[in-house]
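dumping this here before i forget
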Amino acid sequence: MKIDPTSYDNADFILDGHSYFDRWGAAAAAFRDSWPEDLQVLDQPYGDGSRQAFDLFLPRDTAPRGLFVFIHGGFWRLSGRKDWSHIAQGALGNGWAVAIPSYPLAPDVHVAEITRSIAQALPVMAARVPGPLIVGGHSAGGHLSLRMVCPDVELPDEVRARLVGILPISPLADLTPLVMLPMNEFLRIDADEAESESPIRYPEPACIVQVEVGSAERPAFVDQAIRLADAWLKSDLTVAEGCHHFDVIDPLTDPASRMVQHMLSMAASDQP
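structure:
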């Protein structure tokens, strides 16, 4: 099957697309400068690797109501936690703590190793904050958030019991198309790994899954989201009108946004 080599390219198809990476980093630094130092627990290790660390942000004037873990994107080969601190604002404004991990990147490691790294990070982050746990992520981070609820991923029972919802934003649920793309020179995904690392191949989890994608994204990303929602019938799919791959995550910075309120309602749905 022939695939357009630009199917999953984003920056070239978004106005000023290449400027977003610098803008995210600047917004993240500005947020850290503005948030009280005693409510930031930075550079906490969860493993021995140089990129195996996370930042934790705590809400003002209240004990955390739960923990939201945000996993960044970048096709498993770009970015890190310091580019995404500002994403914490929406959950923080509702009294939730937020953890943002970095992880080893391709081509130094394979996607399967990145999945194992996030699975290693999750119980360490969860141990810092009691209560319900929501895991979200964008693009490749959306893939990693979904992988955390697949049965082949090893998590402690107490962490699984606390996991009330997954928020995959523009996720990569099926990795098989990537095998034929130029980026696979760096990712080195073979057919077996594409199969085992595709969340869409696994049964849907017991917890709530809230899938988000922008209507103005590349068709391949919209298709991935729709196919996941079709495969996981209990999941909830929102197609955000007019949003592209880079601004679809902006609502995470707004405590009152539909995305944040919907996300946190997953914890309310878990209450007796």
